[in-house]
Specification:
With 434 residues, this protein is α+β, with helices and mostly antiparallel strands. It is 36% helix and 29% strand. The chain has 7 helices and 23 strands. Helix 2 runs antiparallel to helix 4. The chain starts with a strand and ends with a helix.
Length: 434
């Protein structure tokens, strides 16, 4: 049958055109797995949401066969994710134990010294001292020329007014196993301190971001000293208490002073895409406490026998014990974050592996939801003992007592998993049915 032309469009098969928007009837299921798509015309769905943004809506329908194929790929990905997560969890526990051991040894071996004069007896040792830290040459931004007397560190923050893409999707499963997803892409002009590549936008149109001419950066002072000791970069880098600084001095070509910033553009109150603003913050000289190695009159990173390095610096007069306690707390926080990441990756892996099972029941949406919930519950039940077993094995290697306790907890998780499974029916019940 020859295709019929409607309003300049071609209608084929069972397509129909309604209000200039192409839709497609949903088949009971698509064994071929071909993806069908409904893309609304740009002129109809590209809406202006104000001076600084607009949006575009796209609707796609994926057939059951395509979803099944995607679930098989997801299962393969899950088989890869789980070993990666196990390696991450094991490495993280070893790293945490070694970090705490090194900090404990450092806290026991640290030597208190005065800031001046330099103590030759402390050579090669981990020392703690408090004094005035000041630069020989203040930190300075070589591009914008910003500096200040006694400035230990200088941070330059560059922001560009640019387009940013955000997306929001809503999906529904259809009878027959297909899935319809409506995605709204919204575009807004915002100040960001990193470049956004507009070539990757789903809808490029007039959403073009120019290259960012300058980048954020941090500059350290030269010849920094604390009393009679020179301060090495790893120690100086631990000072992060930046305070805002005015954009002083002559603005570079194309920039002008605007409040506490340098501005590149026509009107700071009505920015356009590509406008730049640059702000500054600094760490001034002052009283600083340091825990680091004394090496040839230089305060530098101290290396433990396991390779862990200690280079601590905090503003003010802070006791060594307090500095080590804060560092242990930071290490503990990092350890728990990585544990959480490892657990989530294991969970995602098991969910991916169970995805094909959900797809087998996707002909009826309510069955897919029920099976999917069961797969997720099973994934959690498996992820907890796997995570605990991995952590336990790592701790058995490094700290046997704690590791054995975790191993018992993991075994308890597996026992609960067995209890959740189907139970054997009593013999009397079977005999009764005969």
């Amino acid at each position: 049958m020859a295709p019929a032309r409607l309003g300049g469009r071609v209608a084929l098969g069972h397509q129909r055109i309604v209000d200039s928007k192409v839709t497609k009837d949903t088949l009971p299921f698509t064994l071929s797995g071909l993806e069908t798509m409904e893309k609304r015309a740009m002129s109809d769905d590209f809406s202006d949401s104000g001076q600084n943004g607009d949006s575009y809506t796209e609707t796609t329908t994926e057939g059951w066969g395509s979803r099944l194929g995607g679930s098989l790929i997801a299962a393969l990905i899950g088989l890869i994710l789980i070993p990666i997560a196990i390696v991450l969890l094991y490495w993280n526990e070893g790293r945490a134990v070694e970090a705490i051991r090194a900090l404990d040894r450092g806290a026991s071996a640290i030597v208190e010294v005065a800031a001046t004069p330099a103590d030759p007896k402390a050579e090669g040792k981990l020392v703690h001292l408090t004094g005035t830290m000041q630069p020989g040459t203040p930190a300075r931004d070589p591009v914008f020329g910003v500096s200040a007397d006694g400035l230990l560190r200088l941070s330059r923050k560059v922001e560009m007014f640019q387009w940013e893409e955000q997306s929001k999707s809503e999906s529904r499963e259809n009878v027959g196993g297909s899935k319809t997803t409506t995605t709204t892409y919204s575009y807004h002009k915002v100040w960001l301190d990193h470049p956004v590549d507009s070539s990757h936008f789903h809808v490029q149109g007039n959403h073009h971001n120019p290259a960012m001419p300058q980048q954020s950066a941090t500059f350290d002072a030269g010849n920094v000293v604390l009393g009679a000791y020179k301060v090495d970069a790893p120690v100086l880098g631990r000072l992060t208490g930046f305070k805002p600084l005015p954009a002083s001095g002559d603005a570079p070509s194309g920039y002008r002073a605007s409040g506490d910033t340098f501005y590149h553009g026509d009107n700071p109150t009505q920015p356009e895409v590509g406008d730049i603003r640059v702000s500054f913050a600094g760490v001034p000289s002052g009283i600083v406490s340091v825990a680091a190695a004394s090496a040839g009159g230089v305060l530098t990173a101290w290396r433990d026998r396991n390779g862990y390095t200690i280079a601590l610096a905090e503003p003010g007069s802070v006791a060594a014990a307090a500095m080590f306690k804060a560092e242990k707390a930071a290490e503990s926080t990092l350890t728990w974050i990585l544990r959480g990441v490892g657990f989530v990756v294991v969970l995602i892996g098991f969910v991916c592996i169970g995805r094909p099972l959900s797809m087998l029941f996707a002909i009826l949406p309510f069955l897919e939801s029920i099976v999917g919930a069961g797969v997720f519950l099973a994934a959690i039940t498996l992820s907890v003992p796997v995570t605990l077993f991995t952590i336990a094995i790592a701790w058995i290697v490094h700290r046997p007592v704690t590791g054995l306790l975790l191993l018992v907890a993991a075994g308890g998780g597996l026992f609960l998993l067995g209890r959740i499974g189907p139970r054997r029916r009593p013999a009397g019940f079977i005999a009764g049915r005969r």
